[in-house]
Amino acid sequence: METIVNKAKVLFPLTQYPVHRTYMEVLSRYCSTKGTYITRCNTKKLSEAMGNEFVSLFELIENNDSPKFLNLCLALKIKAKKSKTVTKQEFSNHEVLNNITAAIKPYILAFKREEQQIKEDSERVKVLNKKKAALVQEAKQAKAKSQYLEHFRDFPEFGLNKIKRSSYADKILTRLQKGDASEKDFFWLHEKGFDTHETSQALLDFYMNRAKIHLKHWERTKKPWSLVNAIADFRKSKNPELIIRTIQSNYPFKFSGSNKKLNSALLTTSGGVYRDLCQYSDSLKLGEEAHELSPTDFRPCTLIGASHMLLGNINDGHCWYDKAIERGFKPESYDNELRSIYMRSDNEIKNELKNSLLDRGYNYSWLKN
Question: FRET partner for 269 with CA separation of 20 to 30 A, picked from 46, 132, 292, 312?
Fold first, then answer.
């Protein structure tokens, strides 16, 4: 009969017919063999307190008469529905309603407590399961991370991840972390495709730090090559303005004496600073002075060639770059120089340089932009 009673429960939704639904729940548990069993004595006592129709339901359960039980349930549903329409209560007789409510109320409260307990237990289980799943996931992630770190290293400060442990890249980046990287290390990173915005900035910082060291050494010892190196590194760090006053206060570098190579190096690197600062007439002047001292060196020639082009003397610029190549300047370096000059020129010079390069047969992709 348990199955039949459970079907009958559907006739009485809890929100609309709480008394009838609770009574059906009592009958269901009376018929049940599970842990929520209600005794025959209590079920009969409740039925008698609720009235003859409910006693009949109990007896039909006792006699295992399913058809009549369902028919009586339907009749009770119709009766309760009519009563709700008229009185908004499940029973039309107020006195009967009070008696039935008093009899059924302990079960209503008990079932509510039981339902609440089930919900709370369910929530506790969900929370525990969630915590357990989180711990399992955390353990998996920890294991995966441990396995990852056995083979790889991340260098987030340089924007580089998954670097194989003990590889050459790992060793260089570790040196870079410690501030012990060399210029050669940076060149290797660039060549192998490990250069990022962060490593590029680190290289600029490297040059700046080295420039300051060379400058302090020059100020302390007055050794000229320290000044040459300081000027070169301030340029590489993209801070030529920080060394211009030192250049101006020491020009024309009389302390180099008769050492033409040294004097040419000072003039060429200083001319490069003027070029970086867009003072092209000054860079041209120093380049020409350097060329007079070392006519076989390509470096003054490139400075003169760039200065001419940036001043708008395109043909003269080409002529001096040709001389630089004759003296050992690499053609690929020339290509990079031309691009640099083109990108920093004003529109008029840029257009003239573009036409000149196209006439000479150069077809760089950057000329089309």
Answer: 312
In whole angstroms, what is the distance from residue 21 CA to residue 363 CA?
Answer: 90
Q: Which two tokens stand for residue 108?
A: 């209503």
Tell me how far the alpha carbon of residue 166 is from its chain's centroid: 27
- Chain centroid to Cα 74, Å, comes to 64
Q: How many domains does the chain have?
A: 2
Domain of 290: which CATH number? 1.25.40.10
Residue where a domain stops, chosen among 82, 100, 119: 119
**Averaged pLDDT in 10-residue chunks for the chain of 369 residues:** 88 92 89 74 89 92 92 93 90 80 86 87 93 94 94 95 96 94 93 93 94 97 96 96 97 94 97 96 97 97 96 94 94 88 89 89 79
Contacts 24+ apart (CB under 8 A), 41-46: 46/103, 46/104, 46/107
Q: Containing domain of residue 270, as a range?
A: 251-368
